[in-house]
Amino acid sequence: MSNEKNLVKAIKEKGNNLEAEMSFFDHLEALRWHLIRSVIAVAVFSIIAFCNFHFLFNTIIMAPFHPTFWSFRMMCYLGTLFHLSGFCIDHINGHIINTEMAGQFLLQINTSLLIGVILGIPYILWEIWRFIKPALLEKERKAASGFVFYASMLFIVGILFGYYILVPESVAFLAGYTVSDTINNQFTISSYLSIVSTITLLTGILFELPIVIYILASIGILTGTFMRKTRRYAIVIIMIVGAIVSPSPDILTTTLATIPLLVLYEVGILVASVVEKRRLKKHEELMAS
Q1: At residue 10, does pLDDT exceed 90?
Q2: Band (245; pLDDT cuts 50, 70, 90)
Q3: What is d(CA 222, CA 286) in angstroms, rounded to the nearest whole number?
Q4: How far apart are CA 103 and CA 86, in angstroms?
Q5: Domain map of the chain by residue range?
Q6: Of 11, 46, 188, 260, which residue is least crowded by CB atoms under 10 Å?
Q7: Residue 9 has pLDDT above 60, yes or no
């Protein structure tokens, strides 16, 4: 009799293990298809960017290197309006050169891939949401229903902020910085593209701070109370990050990079506080029942 019980128990355990293994491989297969679709989306956007590269390169990528760029014109307008001397930038000191035989061809390919990734971020976020959605409870799904929209909007706003605010200031400063009049500034196109892409992508990622705080607060790692207590330390860290994001050491660019991060941190405190209150309410309801 005991042998039969042991046999039945072994069969049940084997069945549970097989079910768990099948569930794991099912999730792995689902993840694989989410990744494949994301790669296809990035490839499609990259091909579109490659076919329209000359327009994108001349009107978007190289725009911050010309004094006619929108940001420089606004600076000149504000300088004239408030009588600020030296605020108007009407000349970029330097020339863009290519030093490799296949440099411009590789530039077109790499830049098209980069543009494809940036344009594909909203779709990638949507695929991430589709993957994690089945594992969430109904209340959790409703609470995180705007994840793709808010994450995409924050990323786009961060990209635009970096492109229109930080990139022009950084390019103007670095191109105009000289240690001797005998040195002529000539920058490789890869160096220029690295500055533009790094700043824009970093600001796009940093603007996701409220989303990251929401996720950490939802799983109980962060609370609004803790963030308020550590605000002074967070300000120091944010100032360091702002100095890293803006390669120019002038106080104006660093301040421009720091202020939005401080605002996002305060928004994060509000988000974490709302999540904290919601968790406390659920805990009280559970204890009451």
Answers
A1: no
A2: confident
A3: 21
A4: 36
A5: 1-153
A6: 11
A7: no
Residue 138, both tokens: 């109904």
Q: Which residue in the block uniquely carries the two structure tokens 């890293």?
A: 244
Sign of the torsion formed by the C-alpha atoms of 110, 113, 119 and 124: negative
Tell me the per-residue pLDDT of 85-101, one tens digit each, with 9 for 90 and over: 777 888 888 889 998 89
By the 8 A CB rule, do 75 and 88 touch? yes
Please give, one letter per residue, the 3-state secondary structure of the chain: CHHHHHHHHHHHHHHHHHHHHHHHHHHHHHHHHHHHHHHHHHHHHHHHHHHCHHHHHHHHHCHHHCCCCHHHHHHHHHHHHCCCCCCCCCCCCCEEECCCCCHHHHHHHHHHHHHHHHHHHHHHHHHHHHHHHHHCCHHHHHHCCCHHHHHHHHHHHHHHHHHHHHHHHHHHHHHHCCCCCCCCCEEEHHHHHHHHHHHHHHHHHHCCHHHHHHHHHHCCCCCHHHHHHCHHHHHHHHHHHHHHHCCCCCHHHHHHHHHHHHHHHHHHHHHHHHHHHHHHHHHHHHHHC
- Tokens 């980069």: give the residue: 114
